[in-house]
Amino acid sequence: MAVPIRKGRQIDYMRTAGGIARDILLKAAAQVKPGVTTGEIDAYVAECIRERDCVSAFLGYQSGGGPKFPGHICISVNEEVVHGIGSERKIQFGDILKIDVGIIKDGWVGDNALTVPAGEIDPETYRLLYATEESLDEAIRHARSGTMLGDLCASVERKAREFGFSVVREFVGHGVGRRLHEEPQVPNYRPKINKPRLRPGMILAIEPMVNQGTAGVKVLDDDWTVITADGKPSAHYEHTVLVTDGEPEVLTARDRLTSSAGLEVPSNP
Hints:
Layout: H1 9-29, H2 38-51, E1 55-56, E2 74-77, E3 80-82, E4 96-105, E5 108-117, H3 123-141, H4 149-162, E6 166-167, E7 173-175, E8 182-186, E9 203-206, E10 209-211, E11 217-219, E12 226-228, E13 234-236, E14 239-242, E15 249-250
Antiparallel strand pairs: 1-4, 2-4, 3-12, 4-5, 6-10, 7-8, 7-9, 9-14, 10-13, 11-12, 14-15
């Protein structure tokens, strides 16, 4: 497994790409309101991308021999886990939207995602969002030089299970840099092989996908949209993270969106 090690100006380019991806994601999140369509948000982000002189990392993306992705962002509602496509679907009060923004700036990729509620949501769904963001933060704490990648991955599932939730196994995080998907794969559970050991200069897109019910998922007939097998809600958060000689550097850093206030939060074992 050849994991790219980034240095010097390469890291500067990734910081720029990450910051732009973060800015656009937060602008997209601010558009989430009942009555707005998911297609309108996609079109809004397309304009934001043009204004920042970059391109979508998702538009036209093709996996294997399947169809090219038709949207500028992935926008997934409620039981949709990831890879949702903007459409005429109107957002309803109480929906949760997973928005994933990936951009390419000067040949370098910034990738990040979050889950946004449309108005108030029920307490258990909010707890799902909180647990997923906790899982992401826990994984980032493991993104240190010398840590085995498998230990980072295992921390996501361990945290999600503390809350009684499950992690998606069919779709995973990844390295990111010149291409949207680079080595290594970053699953949200302990992989069979614990390697590699993390080194300064590795850049990871860490993205917990956590389901309220079963871990099982299926893909819709559009060959892109992934939904939970039981129709229960799913949450998704993602950051692009640089491994350094010291603290992990989150290249898509933003304020945390969920709080433990009023929640029953499991105590650490």
